[in-house]
């Protein structure tokens, strides 16, 4: 049956041709994918450092922030409680998130003598935040996070990354994280919405360089920028082991205190389209007012067993 044999030969040839075509076609395609994907897919890790303290709106604020952060790729959240021990509320919230995180605690030192400095720190956050007699400025908490970061990076193979100090009640667009990954050298800066008595507080940019600032609140600060308005190359914290926040500076000077170790105005890299876009807002959660059950004619059912 020569006809069938020819057919088989055709079939074998066709299969060979198909396999050959598949190999030649796909090999360069795969190679292309690998070579182009490597640099594109490298995203520097962002280390977000967030001090937090117990209060009625804490879980609400942390829920909102953590669920934003879950949308950020290659993000490591360092949460530091102002407390003697880590609380179950924060521990569970972190555990239930899908985030890569580190949970720390550092209690704010109670200063016995109320100095002018301390009062200044208090005034800065007093209205909506701190009802206790001492005032937290996040100094001990951020420094604890920096200690952890230095330990972590010194043993890490990839020492690259970006450090961002984040309040637990600010509002962050996902775009601000894209911007800070563009830091090439030392420190990236961008505008912050609704802060310092202004619609927007921002570095002024001339020819792609920071030439000044528009701040009206304490404009004499070396860096009149809010904590939410900059991020620092993480590697620099290894190069400057002495860099930390200080309790000795007056309110509004913490940003300048940490930035002075790393940069001068000339080093600042203006991001967010030469500081013309707002991708973060210094929002603050209003202190909730809860009725005192003892003063009510018909007291509500006890709800102390419910975590709020
Ligand atoms: C960060 O700083 C280190 C050390 O100075 C430097 O090698 C690196 O290029 C800088 N930039 C980034 C994005 O890591
Ligand atoms: C920022 O400004 C510089 C100088 O005017 C310009 O070359 C650059 O393209 C601008 N960058 C962006 C992202 O707009």
In terms of topology, how is this protein built?
Layout: H1 2-41, E1 46-52, H2 58-69, E2 75-81, H3 88-96, E3 100-105, H4 116-125, H5 139-155, E4 162-165, E5 171-172, H6 174-180, E6 187-189, E7 192-195, E8 198-201, E9 203-206, E10 209-213, E11 230-233, H7 236-239, H8 254-259, E12 268-270, H9 272-275, E13 280-281
Parallel strand pairs: 1-2, 1-4, 2-3, 6-12
Antiparallel strand pairs: 4-11, 5-13, 6-11, 7-8, 9-10
Helix pairs in contact: 2-3
The chain binds 2-acetamido-2-deoxy-beta-D-glucopyranose (NAG) (2 copies).
Task: Kindly summarize this structure in a few lines.
The chain is of the alpha/beta class and 308 residues long. 35% of the residues lie in helices and 18% in strands. The protein has helices at residues 2-41, 58-69, 88-96, 116-125, 139-155, 174-180, 236-239, 254-259, 272-275; strands at 46-52, 75-81, 100-105, 162-165, 171-172, 187-189, 192-195, 198-201, 203-206, 209-213, 230-233, 268-270, 280-281.
Describe the fold and architecture.
There is one protein chain. The chain has 308 residues and is of the alpha/beta class. The chain has a single domain, classed as Alpha-Beta Complex (Spore Coat Polysaccharide Biosynthesis Protein SpsA, Chain A). The protein contains 9 helices and 13 strands. The chain has helices at 2-41, 58-69, 88-96, 116-125, 139-155, 174-180, 236-239, 254-259, 272-275, and strands at residues 46-52, 75-81, 100-105, 162-165, 171-172, 187-189, 192-195, 198-201, 203-206, 209-213, 230-233, 268-270, 280-281. The radius of gyration is 27 Å and the shape is globular. One 2-acetamido-2-deoxy-beta-D-glucopyranose binds at residues 44, 160, 183, 185, 233, 235-236, 239.
């Amino acid at each position: 049956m020569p006809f069938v044999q020819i057919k088989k030969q055709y079939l074998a040839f066709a299969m060979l041709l198909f396999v050959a075509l598949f190999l030649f076609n796909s090999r360069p395609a795969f190679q292309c994918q690998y070579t182009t994907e490597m640099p594109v897919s490298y995203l520097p890790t962002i280390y977000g450092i967030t001090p937090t303290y117990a209060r009625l709106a804490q879980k609400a604020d942390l829920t909102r922030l953590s669920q934003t952060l879950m949308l950020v790729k290659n993000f490591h959240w360092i949460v530091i409680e102002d407390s003697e021990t880590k609380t179950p509320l924060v521990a569970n919230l972190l555990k239930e998130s899908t985030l890569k995180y580190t949970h720390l605690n550092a209690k704010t030192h109670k200063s016995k003598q109320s100095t002018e400095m301390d009062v200044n720190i208090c005034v800065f956050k007093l209205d909506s935040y701190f009802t206790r007699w001492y005032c937290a400025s996040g100094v001990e908490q951020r420094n604890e996070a920096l200690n952890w970061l230095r330990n972590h990076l010194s043993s890490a193979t990839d020492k690259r990354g970006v450090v961002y100090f984040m309040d637990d009640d600010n509002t962050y667009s996902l775009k601000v994280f894209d911007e800070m990954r563009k830091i090439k050298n030392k420190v990236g800066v961008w505008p912050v919405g609704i802060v310092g008595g202004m619609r927007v507080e921002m570095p002024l940019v001339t020819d792609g360089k920071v030439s000044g600032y528009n701040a009206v609140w304490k404009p004499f600060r070396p860096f009149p920028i809010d904590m939410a308005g900059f991020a620092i190359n993480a590697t620099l914290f290894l190069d400057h082991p002495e860099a930390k926040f200080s309790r000795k500076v007056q309110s509004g000077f913490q940003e300048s205190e940490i930035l002075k170790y790393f940069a001068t105005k000339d080093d600042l890299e203006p991001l967010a389209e030469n500081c013309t876009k707002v991708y973060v807002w210094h929002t603050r959660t209003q202190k909730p007012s809860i009725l005192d059950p003892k003063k009510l004619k018909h007291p509500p059912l006890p709800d102390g067993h419910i975590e709020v």
